[in-house]
Amino acid sequence: MAGFRTLLTKQVSNRTLAIGGLILLIYWIYGVYKPHLRNVTSYSSIIEKPKNCPKLGFAKPPLPLTALASYPGSGNSWTRHLLQKSTGIYTGSVGRERFMINNGYRGEGVKNGSVIVIKTHRSRNQSEVFERAVLLMRNPFEAHWSYFNLMSSRSHTRIVDKGRFCTRYTKSKGTDSWKRFYINWLQFKGDLFISFYDELLQNKENKLRELLAFLGFSTKNIDCALYDPEGIAHRVDKFPFRFFDKDYINNTNSHIEVVAKELRKRSPVMADHVLTWRKSPSEAMEKYQLDEFCKEYTKTKAKMQKGTEAQKIVKGTNLNRHKSN
After folding, report:
1. Which tens digit of pLDDT belongs to each residue from 68-83?
2. Between 20 and 30 A from 322 (CA), which of 43, 212, 283, 307?
3. Do the Cβ atoms of 100 and 77 come closer than 8 Å?
4. What DSSP designation does 281 have?
5. Cα–chain-centroid distance for residue 308?
6. Is the pTM of this model over 0.90?
7. Whole-angstrom Cα distance, residue 281 to residue 295?
């Protein structure tokens, strides 16, 4: 009987150790992957909805005048969403965009200390007298594409269709204005915080914490932004096609290098990051590839139009028969 009890005790002990080890393993895995889980787009499907998120309002007392400066297509409106969710304070803008006003951005057009930052796509010389600035930077190949989408679709979130791509993209502006914009703002004399779009996209929590610290705000409500990270103006780009010819790539690469040289005066590490945005000329598409792509689109469109016209004829014939009866 004593031997049986000893055997039973050993089995229970081994089972307890196994369960304890499994629990420790789960905690270890959670600890390792927790930072990554908090930065994925589907954060809201992993973490419970935060409670007591701040209601949006204007700042009292006034805050320092802070620019949120970026070249168009670099994630300015998206960053505004993240800041509003994290702080409960409206963001402002130099201009007034009807889309933003209609979607609850009551700070649109406000250019004083009642807002946490003030959106601008203008150069320093054309903007308000800012005390400090947040400079958003994005790979110009991607920023140009995003801006082209905005101008062609007249939407912050839609992706332009193939027709507009074929008729307008190759006629749109290059990236010389991108270079001039960033050279101008990198010479800003006040406090300057530089935020890279690609880093914010990949590591939302840590990069947002850094931005909030620069602005002098607590991160206690950061989960409110991470739970709802997209907002109404973040385009999820699913259009699979890019057309960059060799001249465009070479010109844009040279602009990247000029901006990186200016940025190196502030941060060699950041300058090296910007240089990773360059493309190899071997990635260029030949013009005939674009022509083939657009010819295929034209054929498809013609077939669709014929089908639509045929449906109209059939519908009209049936309507006439119905009337005669």
Report:
1. 999 998 999 899 999 9
2. 307
3. yes
4. G
5. 37
6. no
7. 25
